[in-house]
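From: lab user (bench 3)
To: helpdesk
Subject: output format question, protein + guanine

Hello, I'm new to running complex predictions and I'm not sure whether the block I got back is the full result or only part of it. Here's what I submitted:
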Amino acid sequence: MAKIMDGSELAKKIRSRLKVEVEKYIETHEKKPHLAVILVGNDPASETYVKFKEKACHQVGMNSTIIKLDDNVSEEDLISEIQKLNTNPDIHGILLQLPIPKHLDSEKIINLIDSNKDVDGFANENVAKLSKNQDALVPCTPLGIIRLLEEYNIMTEGQHCVILGRSQIVGKPMAQLMLQKNSTVTICHSRTKNIEEIAKQADILIAAVGKPHMVNRHFVKKGAVVIDVGVSRVNGKILGDVDFNDVEDIASYITPMPGGTGPMTIACLLENTIKCYKNLVIKND
Ligand code: GUN
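Helpdesk reply: Thanks, we reran it on our side. This is the complete output you should expect:
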C-alpha cells in the first residue's frame, strides 16, 4: 500500500517555521510582510482560493489585502491598481488571481507586475530566470511539489519524471524544477499519443491536466511516486486527476486529494511573499 504524502501536515510545519521567521522580521524591521491579492469578478472557486490565501497570511502573522474588482473592470483601471501596488513600499507580494475575464489580456497584465513582487512567478523575468537556473520566484504549485518530494526523501536524480499537462502554471515550471533535480523529464499533453504507455514508464508521475480520475492503475508502474495536482468539480464533489483508490496499491507514495498539493501551494505562496519581503525590505535596510 502506498505511503501518503501529507501536504496538510507539511504545510502546517512550514507555516510554524514561517511564523517564527516573520516574528523575527517584525521585531528587527518593524514591518510585516504584506501580500496583495487582486480578484476580478466573483467566480466562487476563485473567491474560496483567495480566502484561503488570506487566512494563511494571517496564520503566520503577515498582512494581506484583497482588492476586489468588478468583472467588467477596464484594463486601464486594473493596470492602474497594479501600478499602485508596484510603487507601494508597504506591499511586498502581488498576486492576480486567475482566471480573469476574457476582455482582459492576462499575459500583458501579469507582465506589468513588478518582477520583485511577482509571488506567482508568472512574469517573463521570473520564467526566464527559472529556465536558466538562476534565482527566481518559482510558481507555488510546482515549488510545493518539490518540497513534498524532499520531505519524503524521494530520489529524483536519474529518475524518469513524467508530467501530464503543459500549463504555464504547473507543467512547464515543474519540468524545469525536475531537470534541476537531475530527473529525466517527459511532458505529455492533449496531443500526446500513447499517454498511458508513457505514464507507465514514470518513476515519478505528476498529473496536472484537470481531467477527473484520468490516471487509473493502467497509467502507473509498480512502485511509482504519484502526485495529483488536478482539481475538478463533479456533481458537487472535488476530484483530482488521479483515481486514488485504483492506484494506491500500486504506487509507493501518493498525494491525497484533498490534503496533498493544495495546501502546499499556499504554504509556498507564503514562502514566496517572505522571499520578496527579504529582497525588498532587508536588502534596503
Ligand atoms: N488560479 C489557479 N491557480 C492559480 C495560481 O497558482 N495562481 C493564481 N494567481 N491564480 C491561480
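A quick orientation on your result: The longest helix spans residues 7-29. Let us know if anything else is unclear.
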